[in-house]
Every structure is written in C-alpha cells, then in structure tokens.
Amino acid sequence: MQQITDLSSNRAALPPMGLGIDGLPDGMGQLPHHGVIALAGPPGPAFENWRRHLVQDLCQAFPTMLVAPDAPLLDRLLGTQAATADRIEAWILPEAAQRQLQETGFAALRKDLKRAGLGARQALCVLDASPLFTGASLERIHRFAGQLHQWAALRKAPVILCFEAPDDEVRGMLSSFAHAFAYCAFLEQDANGLSLYLERWNSAHGAIFDTRLGLQWLAGKEPAQRMRANGVVMQGAAAQLVHTPDELEIYATQAAVADQRQPPAAWHVIETRELIPEAVQHAIGATVLLDAGSSVEFEALARLVHRLRCTHPQTLKIVVRETQGKLRLNSEQALLRLGANDVIYRELNFSRLLQRLKELQSQRFSRQVPENYEQALHAFMPVPELGYQRPELFCALTRGMLRKTQAIGLSHSLIRLRLLSHASHVQAIAAYRPSRDGDLITADQDSIYVFLFACGESDVDTALPRLFRQPLAQLFSSQISESSHEGMLQLLDRLQSAAEAGLPDYTAVAAPVSAGKGQTSLQPHEAARQPAALPRIAQPAATVPHAPAMSSRPIARRPAQPHDA
C-alpha cells in the first residue's frame, strides 16, 4: 500500500480545511490538501448532512467547483451556502454522461472540467462519483484512477470524490486502489448510531489505518445540525475499542452492591433500576451494573437491558449480577441476546467482579440486537405449563419448545425413567414437584418421561433429584437421558406412537403445581449434594436405544403394591 504523504512542512502555508465534522481528534478533522480524497456513505440525511458541511468548510478555504449528477442535489446542498456562494461554481454531469466517461477515459473528463472553468487553484468536489466507476472493468478502473491521481498530484487544490450508497463493489474498489485514492473514509450508520471509518488518513502523529470514530449530532438530531465526534475511538477490522471519554465510569444499582458496606468511591450508585435510564442518558462507554433481582422481576430487567442497548452506542457495557437467586440458562442467554455484555454469577466475589468489569472496559457489544423486544424474549421463554401432561399434549408442548429454541442453540434434556417393578405410575407422578415453567412429565407403559427446559446434559444428574420428593432409586431402575435435538425427537416419536395406540391419562391424580409456577431463578448447579444418579443406559452416538421390554399386561390391571397409596 502506498504511504500517505506527510505534508506537515507545507501546512503553515496552506489554509486550514475542515472535513465537515467537528471534534475529530489529533488533526483527523482536517482535509488533506493534495491527492484524491474518497469519501463514501449511505444515502439519507446523515450523508447529505456531511456533504453539506464539507462543502461549507471547503469553500471557506478554496474557491470550489461542485460536480453533481442533478440539480436537486445541488439545491439541497447549497441552500445554506449564501455566505460563500461567490466562491462556488456548479456543473451538472448526469449519471449517463459519467458512465460514458468510463469508455472515453480520463482525458475527456479533464477536457470537460477545463471547459467548465475549473482553475488550477480551485478545489474540485464530485458530489456523487459512483457512476464513474461502478460496472467498469478492473483495467478501466485502474487506468482511470491512476490518471486521476497523477492529475490531482500536480494541482494546487484538493480533489474530492464522494460516493453515495457504497455497495460492496464501490467499497472494494476504494479499498483496493490505494495507489489512486490515497485518502479514504466511510460514514457508517447502523442501529447503534453513526461512526466515521478512516480506512487510510493522516493525523497529527502520522498515517493511520482502520480507525473508527464515534459520531453524534452536535445538537439534537435535526439534519441541519453538524455532526461531531463523541470521543469513541476503535481500531482494526474487528473494531477493537481504544478510547471513550467515560470508559472508567461505573453506574450500579444499590441492590447490585448490597453486599458491600462501602462500594468504590468513584462509582455512581443508583437507588433502583427504574432510575438507571435517566442516570446514564449521556453515557457512551461507561459500564452499567444491574442487579438480576428476583424471578418475578425478570421481564422488567430484560426490557431495561434491551432499552439501554438500543439507545446507546455499542461501547456502553451492560452487566447483570445475580443477587437474590440463580438465573435459568434461558434467562441468562436472553439477557445476552437483548444487549447485556455479561452475566456475573452469585458465586463470584466482589474482587473478581471488579476484575471482570476491568476486562470489559476495552470491549464493545458486537452482536445484532433484535428491534422487537417481545419477539426476541419469546424465543427464550418456555411454555407456561409445567408438571404432568397427558402423553399427546406432552409431545406437542415439547416439540414446540424444541422448534422455537433450536435456532438460538438453547440446550434441553429429555429423560426416560424406567419404573421399578414395585413402583407405580401414580406414585412417581405424585412425587414429582416441578417449580419452573416448561419442566414437564408424562408416562408410557412402564416409564416416566421428564422434559427439562434449558437444562443441558451435564446438569441432569444434579437437577433431576430435586424434582422428586422421594429418592430416585426408590422409584426407578434406570434412566435414558437425551440432550441432542435429533435424539429427543426420536424419543418423542416413540412416545407419540405409543400414545396413539392408547396410554392412560393421569391428570386426575397428578399433584397440583401452581405454587412455584413461573419461577426463573433456579439453576441446576446450585443444588446441594444429591443421592447418586440412577444407572444410565448406554446409547450409541446420534441414536436412541431400543426401549426396554414392556409388560404385556395393561397398566390398569397392574397389581397394586402396599405402599402405592
């Protein structure tokens, strides 16, 4: 790549020339005085705003010729240029004429510019140069751009080419032909705001590459207002955060630091979560530490995380700390999907929390956040049912949860527990005490099926004993656990077939489970020491084992045992 020429020795003799954006650090807000300068951005108010103020700054330093594809664009950009109107000349070069110049070559363009009155000390700004290059072969682009560069190097004023709606073709062209476009910058706009990406540019300390600067409107969000840098500096293709003006600021809810007699003096401790949005309304790169609260507060917490993420730059750090209970796996992943940078577990002490917050200071949130909060949260939530379900409904509910969460990679487990010969279905179902939505149970001829929502295979042996009031070994002889999507579907297919052939419905004898309905705070790895797990039936990879031999007698005529009652 060609080195960017350092013009510091000549700067004193040349008038300062702004880039149309205020507050850019280290001299990056000054336009170079020589060479071809490529500026690109998406169509819309932001890019038009930039070009308008770019022309304003340019005309204050040089008499300028503007080249536009149509008159309306000139009218919009020159509407506020009355003070410098005598320093501007305009030339309409339609898109069709620009495309024709791809064939006739740069010599024809140079001749037309001279005929239009372009002087040697007059700046040239092409307001949309995309038609000059799009659709052309690499050879033509190489030749045209090289001749343009040679011509610009001999001039006493800058040459600026603006590219509206830079698709991959235009952006790739500007990136590849660095020998011709010595300076290249892109205005970027996404859901998290505006930024100026300097692919190659000059600064007060020399050439810079792959640097992204956060932007905001100078006052409000009116298109007439100038943009200015907000202090965020990122570098590299992965946009590694370098600096934000408030990166050391930490805002924490009172409940998030309740275990500390005296939180760090520099922290901003906010009484409740409801006051957080107002407290951090101007935050750019600060860290917000929220308490997870209780299970009934989860929806309010998730909505707050989503709101903060959608109204602040990606450089804002949002951290949720478990306080009153353990978040379920699906709740934790939902928070991360909605905009949280991290979830801190209860087991992590305060000194480790400080270390984790320090590690987050140089990070930016890079995941795409869904605009619709309700739809995004719904994908992580189980069905509102829990406890015993008749076999057909069990299969339908379980399949629905598997289908809904497959795309987000949430792990579940389906367990088949084979009953001991002296244990009855009624006894096992009555002993089952679920406390979380989506944890379901049903029965076939000789087994109990348990579906655990958002419970991975590694947590089954810890979670399962907590769900039964009796030790598992007193009810079941063995268990088959399946956590793969395909394996669970195969188990469900077998259960569905058995249900269609006829299975009893134990709804009438199932114990009520409304007391714990809707809880989200329980997490399998928090359980205390439990009895040893049941023997597991080995399974070949990606398949479900054959079911154990079943009794030929109908379950309804199974002899009752003395302790079944």
Tell me what you see in this structure.
The structure is a single chain. The chain is of the alpha/beta class and 565 residues long. It folds into three domains: 11-242, P-loop containing nucleotide triphosphate hydrolases (Rossmann fold, 3-Layer(aba) Sandwich), CATH 3.40.50; 250-377, Rossmann fold (3-Layer(aba) Sandwich); 382-564, no CATH class. Helix content is 29%, strand content 21%. The protein has 16 helices and 21 strands. The chain has helices at 45-61, 71-78, 95-104, 106-116, 130-133, 138-153, 168-176, 276-279, 298-311, 329-338, 350-360, 373-378, 391-405, 425-431, 460-463, 485-501, and strands at residues 21-22, 36-41, 64-68, 88-92, 123-126, 159-164, 183-190, 193-203, 206-217, 227-235, 240-243, 250-253, 268-270, 287-291, 317-321, 342-344, 387-388, 413-419, 440-443, 447-452, 476-482. Strands 1, 2, 3, 4, 5, 6, 7, 8, 9, 10 and 11 form an eleven-stranded mixed beta sheet that branches. Strands 13-12-14-15-16 form a five-stranded parallel beta sheet, with helices on both faces. A five-stranded mixed beta sheet has the order 17-19-20-18-21, with helices on both faces. Helix 2 (71-78) links the parallel strand 3 and strand 4. Helix 9 runs parallel beside helix 10 (329-338) and helix 13 packs antiparallel against helix 16 (485-501). The longest helix has 17 residues, at 45-61. The radius of gyration is 33 Å and the shape is elongated. Mean pLDDT is 82; it is low at 1-12, 515-532 and 538-565. This is BcsE family c-di-GMP-binding protein. Residues 517-565 are annotated as: Disordered.
